[in-house]
Structures are given as structure tokens and as C-alpha cells.
Amino acid sequence: MASAGSDLGIENTNIKTATGVTLDEQQKTLVGSVLDLFAGRPSLKKLSLWDDNGVFEDNITIATGRKQFEPQWYGLQTAFSEIERLHHEVVTAGNPIGMDLKTRYVTKGINKEQTIESRVNIFYDKSTGKITKVQDKWGGELPDSSFKNVSIEQLFDPWWWVHYGEGWIWWMWSFTWDTWWWQAMRNLNSVSVPKMVGVPKNDEEDAKRGNQ
Asked: Distance between CA atoms of 141 and 5, rounded to whole angstroms?
């Protein structure tokens, strides 16, 4: 009998766990699907494991809802020519599931190489088996969340767009954050990426991209 992971086309089935940590089959499926996403191997089937109101949060974005979080994952294929997972280990099997992750990225066009070490937390609804949130904490931390939203007034402020442009340059060239405007850029990023990154409309279109 085929497993849920194989039915969904999950490629990462060899899940490494810390000593004393045991995952049930549902958790293995969720972790394997998330590892695929971080490897730049998204698909509509794998993303069907997410709740429609799910959240993806890292140090450059806060993407809420399917229309925002799906483009974030498909965007990895657009942004990077190489994605290599150097290490992963599940360290906690609760809710959230905690995982240490180390990944090497090479940015398209400029061949900028960067290695990110992060703690990934996978929150899920046990009753539905759906992922409700994934946090990708670079260096084990997320920026301070005191600035949660970008206001209309800020969008019409030229300085916001200057900072936003700086943010994209930073995203391509560095992975450092320490300024107050970065939190707002994270929210703006969640809105702008879906406008630039297309998500397949169906499995056939997904397969043409090599994602099935």
C-alpha cells in the first residue's frame, strides 16, 4: 500500500531525528513535505497539506493565507540556481515540530552563494493534519515583531520605497537585519512576491515545471 508521502510526491522520506525523538507517520509526511519546499521542490499536492489560512514566516517575509505563502515557495525556483541542503535534524516531535536546517543557496544571475542555518518550527492541526504555520528562524531568531503592518500612508511615502528597494538588494546580497523598517518590508514582501511569482493553476501546469 502506498504511503501518504508517496501519493503526494514527497521526495525527502529519510527524515533524520535527534536521539530519543520519534515521529509518527503524519509528522513524517509533514516534515518531508517541508524539506521538499525548502529544497525548491514545491508542488500543489505538497502545498495541499497546508491550511488555507496558514502562515509562513521568516526573516524577510510574513506570508498569511494560500495566496501569499504559495508564491514564497515557488519563488525559490525563480530566485536561486542552486539549493543544497547541507544538514537537517528533527530535534522535537511535539507541536510545533522543531528542526535544525542548514542550506546553501546560489542566487541566479549574480552567482551569490549564501549558507543559512535556521531553526524551523512546523505547527499543525492534529485533527486535520494540515500545516497551520511554518517559522524559519535564521540563526534561531526572527526580527522583532513590533511593526506588523504597512499603512497606506507609508506606501505613499517615497522613503518607504527607497527602503523597500534597499531591502530587495539586501535579500540578494546579504542576510542581515537590524533596522526598524525591515519588519514592514517583511509584510510588504508577502504582498509583492505573489505579483511577481506565478503559481501553477493545476497539476498539469505544475508537472510541466517538473514539480510532480
From this structure: 30
